[in-house]
Amino acid sequence: MRTLFRVMLPVAGVTALGLAGCNAGRSAVGGAEQVSAGFAAAASAPLEDFNLRRQMIPTVLLQAEANPYDLRNLNHCTTIGAEVARLDEALGPDTDEPPRQDGSYLSERAADAAAKATLDAIRDTATDFIPGRSWIRRLSGAEQHSKHVQSAIQSGRMRRAFLKGMGMQRNCAPPAAPSWFRPHS
User: Fold this and answer.
1) Cα separation of 61 and 147, whole Å?
2) How would you label 39-76 residue by residue, b for 16+ Cβ within 10 Å and e otherwise?
3) Cα separations (Å) of 118 from 88, 130, 183?
4) How far is 54 from 57, CA to CA, in rounded Å?
5) Mind listing the pLDDT tens digit for each residue in 123-160?
6) Phi, psi torsion values for 141, nearest 5 degrees
7) N or C: which end of the chain has fewer CB within 10 A?
8) Sign, CA torsion 69/74/79/81
9) pLDDT digits (tens, 9 = 90+) for 63-121
């Protein structure tokens, strides 16, 4: 474990300094803070391989996995829209949604991308250090849980698409239908 941290600390330090040196403005500080905040999570990524830490699956995705075409209590556009909003919260924005304009500068977005790349490199270094990682993931149950998470995400996406289709059929306005859909009078 000491060897792991000996490798990761310099990588994180050099990248954080690089982010700070790129731009003395707010964006570089935000990127360095992002790396600092995410370092512990990235360095502890092997805990997921040993199934000691699990990614929680939101209830709305478990419900979608159990029955993606359930229409109970979805008689009105408002209830369909509320269910789509719950799925959006768990999954992030749908592909039909335009990218959000958060007013950030290009340098801020670049710093965020560099911070994400740094955290990904730390996570990859931490997990690559484990010999026989694929077998450990299988034997610990981490691989099965990872597949369950992906299945729940896929079911949530399928349910959201189904609900938006139902919203279109019932002439509902977005978010109960795709963002491009305009209900007719």
Assistant:
1) 14
2) beebbebbebbebeeeeebbebbebbbeebeeeeebee
3) 27, 19, 45
4) 9
5) 666 556 666 666 676 777 777 878 888 999 999 999 99
6) 95, 0
7) C
8) positive
9) 999 999 999 989 999 999 999 999 999 998 888 877 666 666 667 767 777 777 776 67
In this prediction, residue 62 carries a pLDDT of 95
3-state secondary structure the chain: CHHHHHHHHHHHHHHHHHHHHHCCCHHHHHHHHHHHHHHHHHHCCHHHHCCCCCCCCCHHHHHHHHCCCCCCCCCCHHHHHHHHHHHHHHHCCCCCCCCCCCCCCHHHHHHHHHHHHHHHHHHHHHHHCCCCHHHHHHHHCHHHHHHHHHHHHHHHHHHHHHHHHHHHHCCCCCCCCCCCCCCCC
Average pLDDT over residues 163-180: 94
d(CA 57, CA 62): 7
Q: Are 125 and 7 in contact (CB under 8 A)?
A: yes
Residue 95 is encoded by which pair of tokens?
């592909």
Tell me how far apart the alpha carbons of residues 118 and 28 are, in angstroms, rounded to a whole number. Answer: 13
Dmax (CA) of the chain: 67
User: Cα separation of 115 and 4, whole Å?
Assistant: 20
